[in-house]
Specification:
Blueprint: E1 5-13, H1 19-27, E2 45-51, E3 54-60, H2 70-85, E4 88-94, H3 101-113, E5 119-125, H4 132-145, E6 151-153, H5 162-172, H6 190-205, E7 214-223, E8 229-237, H7 240-247, H8 252-269, E9 273-281, H9 289-294
Binding site for GTP: 13-20, 60-64, 125-128
Family: Belongs to the TRAFAC class TrmE-Era-EngA-EngB-Septin-like GTPase superfamily. Era GTPase family.
Domain Era-type G: 5-175
């Protein structure tokens, strides 16, 4: 029997680089929020993938960007914390955007914020959007900017090249026992996964700014005798006007969000789910340490 391997892999990159999509593709199930909006991943979500005798524990970090608010600062601190703790770091770069100012900033931070011995690989994502010669040029430019251990050409959405990256990571992780049972795909509590599902549906439904001004918490989880689960969640918003937007005309928006979240949770859990959403106004929720704990972030990192 092959020696077992296990280790942590941090996926880093600019917002919307495709980290959550790649994580879900690697794990083979949806464990991280995926939307067209940037900066939607908040907590460091650990997705767990098996490849042969290796267990790869992925840390899907928040996108790295220039922080403005306390929440932004806490997210960026979580991202670098996840990278510093990892056995291998994978930097995701969008093929059609290339070496942006944001990516240059991340490369500088790789030198400053990570231990010198940290192994870093490059994954050029969304390769289906550019021509082959452009990819080769970008690969050369990126490797001149930083000494990456390996470079992979992938499409996280379509799955191209993902298996090659997964197999390389599995082979490079340290030998040792697995951290989690073989059939476990995430180490987030189900209460937090359920809250993330609902927040994703809200993010997809609402317009630009509001999704970053709300958060979702699972207040109550009741296992019923018939095998179903009752889940009560609170959607916290910062202003009265936001509450009206979340509720929608005659409650249509929150009903649609609840239906979509309930259907996804039912499929994820493999049993019926009764989901109840309540919208509350908390003007200062962005300054409350409890809210950060619920998101798996450190409140003090926002200082």
């Amino acid at each position: 029997m092959a020696e077992t391997r296990a280790g942590f892999v941090a996926l880093i990159g600019e917002p919307n680089a495709g980290k959550s999509t790649l994580l879900n593709q690697m794990v083979g199930a949806k464990v991280s929020i995926v939307t067209h909006k940037v900066q939607t991943t908040r907590a460091r979500i650990r997705g767990i993938a098996m490849e042969g005798a290796a267990q790869i524990v992925f840390v899907d970090t928040p996108g790295l960007f220039r922080p403005r608010r306390r929440l932004d600062r806490a997210m960026v601190a979580a991202a670098w914390g996840g990278a510093a703790d990892a056995d291998i770091v994978v930097l995701l770069v969008e093929a059609h955007r290339g070496l942006t100012e944001g990516v240059k900033g991340i490369i500088e931070a790789l030198r400053d914020k990570l231990p010198a011995a940290t192994r870093v690989a490059l994954a050029i994502n969304k390769i289906d959007r550019v021509k082959a010669e452009e990819l080769l040029g970008l690969s050369q430019t990126m490797n001149e900017a930083y000494a990456f251990e390996r470079t992979f050409m992938i499409s996280a959405e379509k799955g191209y090249g993902v298996q090659d990256l997964k197999e390389w990571l599995a082979a490079e992780l340290p030998e040792g026992p697995w951290f989690y049972p073989e059939d476990q795909i995430a180490d987030l509590p189900m209460r937090m996964i359920a809250a993330e599902v609902t927040r994703e549906k809200l993010t997809l439904r609402l317009h630009e700014e509001l999704p970053y001004q709300l958060t979702v918490e699972t207040e109550r989880w009741e296992e019923r005798k018939d095998g179903s689960a009752r889940i009560d969640q609170i959607v916290y918003v910062a202003r009265d006007g936001h509450k009206g937007i979340v509720l929608g005309n005659r409650g249509e928006t929150i009903k649609a969000v609840g239906k979509a979240a309930r259907e996804e949770l039912t499929e994820f859990l493999g049993r019926p789910v009764h989901l109840f959403l309540n919208v509350k106004v908390r003007p200062n929720w962005l300054e409350e340490s409890e809210r950060y704990s619920e998101m798996g972030l450190e409140f003090r990192d926002g200082d």
